[in-house]
Amino acid sequence: MKKLLNLFIISFCLLPFSSTFSQAVGTDLKPFHDSEVSAPFFKDSYGYAFFPTVGKGGIGIGGAYGKGQVYRKGKITGTASLIKLTLGFQLGGQAFSEIIFFQNKRAYDRFTNGAFELEASASAVAITAGAQASAGTGGASAGVSAGPQTGKQLAGEYINGTAIFVHTKGGLMYEASIGGQKFKFRPLLR
Question: How many independent structural domains does the chain possess?
Fold first, then answer.
């Protein structure tokens, strides 16, 4: 048990360095463009933050980390990092992509000014079967989905100016934990 705990601690400390930032963002966005639920948000949103790969893992104490890009009206405005710490029953690891759409300038500014955090009390809309991600915007729920393989998905909608979607890439995670996501935005230097 002690060896397993040491392995987890080492893995958790290396988690920020193991998430590689994808240069092929276009192909990483394909599942979101192909989903009938998330695709309309690309046309109607003020902007979005996209995290191509978020690594998540835990044994009792868990965490997640990912890097991404932030867009406004289709143009990159900066980069962002996502970090999450969770406590509770959890075991395993998972990789997923996450996109946060901003309905208007106010929601975009809240994210880029550092006043945006996702709480643990709501769920993101999953665009793949079996995908799960805990997230929230001030305690409101955006819904969950069994994914397109079932033929039925809940519609995505803006809650407090944001709509959140996830796409599971792989892994297996058992989780009954609480925690929230924090973001750090870095504008592009021009």
Answer: 1
